[in-house]
Specification:
Chain lengths: 158, 266
């Protein structure tokens, strides 16, 4: 058997390569990769772990039940509080208030929905803001133009 | 013997070296492929472990997204809500609104200033506009999605519910998926340098809440449904109404359906 050592060499090489591959895979391929498909299954749970910023639709009514009730009977009822204010997580942490909620009194906030536009369906009241304020051309729209007449009670219960 | 090895290009040592490389590569492919196949089958047969922050079974949901174009007022509340909920960087969009204006002669004007984030200015096309409408857009969460097929590292994937997600720890930022998405719904995040896109607010869905864009739509133009939930109203719209998908010719099988879409919508 003069060629035995060649067989041993080949066998040794094969075992060495296989060990290298298996050990290499162990370190290079993430643990949950391929558990549910060609991706890292743990990534799914990392997405789940992210904390929501917007509260549940009725979350604000837990403390502001008076405003919520007024708003529910007004025309702004379908509009979530967070559309005009800010996300709940900017105001509440672990069930307690830690900062004031933003109140945006700028006319642009109203114009987002109520500026008359070509193609805007007539589901809601629309005006051309400049025309409505009877501004001369070139005159800037005052920042709080809308809330001067349509105050917060009118907005929450128009 | 010596003569032959001089004549031939490949000696015994070289041959063994090459063979070892080849065998190693083959083993890598076989071990890898076999492993993922077995595990995928195990999951399909109900072997999936149910982890996560709460009792939530991904395989018992199949989310559908419906947009009624006749109800969209182009206010941009959805774009702003998405930005706040998901920390979307300025001038990048996971969802955006396009304004379509079609003239009587068939010219189509499409604009989306800042993605509709600050709504729209009165239009100045100068043309005789005969119809106009707003079209909200987002990832279509395609069943047969090009972005996942293109990803070279398995960072883009379809969740068991059918939501297309990105594993940003694995993404190498090659942007093949950004180029491959026919709907333009992906971008490379300017700070993480990984692919970013609509997650259908996955973190909210698993807590039983709806997406930020749907919750903040003041007219109900955006709707989220679950085809695996009995009596789901939105799934019923898809089942019974004349719904349209974007670029049906690409057979990407989107799960985002449009009601009242005009033929100009691409």
């Amino acid at each position: 058997m003069e060629h035995t050592k060649h067989i041993w060499r080949a066998a040794f090489l094969l075992i060495a390569v296989l060990t290298f591959v298996i050990v290499g895979r162990h370190f290079l391929v993430p643990k949950s990769f391929g558990q549910a498909g060609y991706y890292r299954y743990d990534a799914l749970f990392e997405h789940m772990d992210k904390e929501p910023r917007h509260g549940a639709p009725d979350a604000c009514a837990d403390c502001h039940d008076d405003i919520a009730a007024a708003k529910a009977s007004g025309k702004h009822a379908p509009v979530q509080c967070e559309v005009c204010h800010d996300v709940l997580s900017s105001h509440i942490k672990d069930g307690d208030k830690f900062a004031d909620m933003r109140i945006n009194r700028n006319w642009e906030l109203c114009a987002y929905c109520h500026q008359r536009l070509v193609g805007r369906p007539a589901l809601i009241a629309q005006v051309d803001i400049r025309e409505h304020l009877e501004l001369a051309s070139g005159q800037a729209i005052p920042a709080e133009a809308c809330v001067q007449c349509h105050d917060k009670d009118a907005i929450h219960h128009p | 013997m010596c003569e032959r090895s001089e004549n031939k290009g490949v000696g015994r040592r070289d041959f063994l070296r090459l063979a070892a490389k080849g065998a190693g590569g083959m083993a890598l492919v076989m071990v890898g492929g076999g492993h993922s196949l077995v595990s995928a089958n195990a999951v399909r047969e109900g072997g999936a472990d149910r982890r996560g922050p709460m009792e939530y079974d991904p395989s018992s949901h199949r989310y559908l997204y419906v947009i009624d174009i006749d109800k969209c007022i182009g206010c941009g509340s959805c774009v702003r809500a998405c930005e706040r909920e998901n920390d979307v960087p300025k001038h990048f969009f996971r969802t955006w609104i396009e304004r379509y204006q079609v003239s009587r002669t068939g010219e189509v004007f499409v604009d989306s200033p800042n993605g509709g984030h600050d709504s729209f200015e009165p239009s100045e096309t100068g043309a005789d506009i005969s119809k106009a409408f707003f079209v909200p857009k987002l990832c279509n969460h395609c069943d047969s999605t090009p972005c996942v097929q293109l990803c070279p590292v398995g960072a883009s994937f379809v969740s068991p519910e059918g939501v297309v997600l990105v594993d940003d720890k694995r993404c190498i930022g090659c942007s093949y998926c950004v180029q491959g998405c026919p709907y333009g719904s992906r971008f490379i995040h300017p700070t993480t340098h990984t692919a970013s896109k609509c997650t259908l607010c996955y973190h909210r869905l698993v807590r039983g809440e709806t997406t930020a864009c749907v919750q903040n739509c003041p007219t109900g133009a955006r709707m989220l449904g679950d085809a695996r939930s009995l009596g789901d109203k939105v799934a019923e719209i898809v089942a019974t109404s004349k719904v349209h998908v974007l670029k049906p010719e690409l057979h990407t099988e989107p799960k985002c359906f449009y009601v009242n879409a005009s033929r100009e919508v691409r």
